[in-house]
Amino acid sequence: MALPSLSRILTTQSSMMMASQTAMKIQSRALAIALNIVFISEAFSATWIVNCQHQSASDSNPGTETAPLRTISQAAQLAQPGDTVLVHAGIYREHVAPARGGTPDRPIQYRVANGEDVVIKGSEVWQPVWKQVGASPQILAGRLDPSWFVDGTANPYRTLLKGMPKDSRLTLGQVFVDGNPLREVDRSQELIATPATWMVASTGDELIVHFPKEVTSPEEGLVEITTRQRIFAPHRRGLGHIHVTGFTMEHCANQFPDQFWQSETPQAGALGCRAGHHWVIDNNTVRFAKSIGIDCGYEGRHDLDGNQPTPQNTGFHLINNNHVSDNGCCGIAGMRSIGTQIVDNVIENNNSNHHAAPEIAGIKVHYFVDGLIARNLLRNNDGHGIWLDNTYRNARVRQNLVIGNRGSAIFVELGEGPVLIDNNVLANTRPGLDGNESRADGLYTHDASGVTFAHNLVFGCDRFGSSHRKMTNRNKAGVARIALLNNIFINNQAGHLDWPYPGQFATSNIAECNIFGTQGEFVVNAWGGNAQDVVISALSRQMGRTPRLWNGVSPRLTLAELQANVRGVSHNQLLHEASANLSESLVLELKLGVDGRAQTMSRVEGVLEDYFGRPYTTEALFVGPFQSLSAGTLSSSLWTTRVTGAQ
To answer: Is the pTM of this model over 0.85?
Structure first.
């Protein structure tokens, strides 16, 4: 047989290669088309329209503008990663429980349509058959609707509120008349004597209401009672990448978080992240929860919705530009909320239940590692303004306005830091509700170390401008590495500083380059591990006389005496013309009587800008939180000039 010629072999191989290349091109194109289809499918995002006021609204609709869903809850069951739930104006009485979370590049967004008002309520309209009780036509009783408390929904009017005095019979319920909350009482004599109150009848299935004097006919007004323990929170724990924007959430029957870390009473906010991660909560109003407004941590060991394990990856949230007010216990709470930022919020009038127990604050966080609390207004809370508890490593608290709160403006408890607290204004702190005199300071720490407090203004506090104590043996370091630098203290009632005398558990503490007004002395305490008589004896030997005592216990010293007899407080300045006043409209009038540039100043690492965001410069470094403090005077709004979004 004749062998094929070389040219034919090459021609055949070339044809086969061309055919193979053509096939490969076809396959590549097919693969590209398939990949494009997958990519388009993955990139597709749906928008689910919810409009309860639309005449055709139904949860069986496809969720379009012309055929919208009726409830947000239905949209929350349908939404997939990358989707948006767009809600039109209306009142939605439901518990919104997202079925799933998003992904880093495809979050699930819940937001209000532009310019519209959406209110999600944990209450129902109450229209019972009213019957008069006793002689007053203003005191009426009505039965509860048992259909509200089915399918596992607990009756809040048969559940006692925790964290109250032992003889209290107050419940988780709330009553609102024309939008205004009435006060619950648990004694009939008080109900009869006090309009705008209510109580649960002894049978537990009806309420007795003493209506306000201006309400002549409850049938003509709006009476609402809370029925749900959550407003917006998943049933599943640990969901991530959920955005919640623009809603008003109110009327929630949630429980006080009594020893939540070990009890069956978790931190459960009206708006709750449910031990999730990477949520964005912005431009919302959250108010009138019986307990917590917003929770952003791991909740606690107990799960309200079943026996789900506790997620470990909690936190990394952005809580921004919200108004959180009038909640029964706390505004924002979170344990183990790692890397979370709480910024530009208005947080006011919380702890309306007047709890004296722990967990009461505008912001209360535990294990707040790598967290930021900045540019918030915390005003008139019946608890501490900001409370960092049990570990606060690498946390930052800056540029906040914290005024008129009960208990300390900023409370740091149990940890070794470091935490940087800078460029805040802390003012007019009132005595706390727990009967403890140590809760009325600007900055208060106990069992805490590694705290740097720099460039702050502290004035008008009922107790001390800054107080530091060792209360227990929980922190082995005691009171150590406390640094007060470049602050202004004016007119704090008990004194400027309550300072730990150096000892075994009070080491490496400094207070340098601060300015103090003349109204206020300095107290040296023995809470750093020394016995009080040892401190008094040591100071007596050094001073050549027995020092005067504050409250019959702690030595009282002038600034000169403090600097001469206590280490780490040598460079400070006393001013004779210092004053600070803050108006109801939050306009500050500050006068120091000297130029704001202190003769001696400590540059604090990481502090780059002042309260208003103006940069610190090497040429003109001012004491306190204002770089515009020329000639020692300042007149400026502390809120509207800096933050405009939160109302």
So the answer is: yes
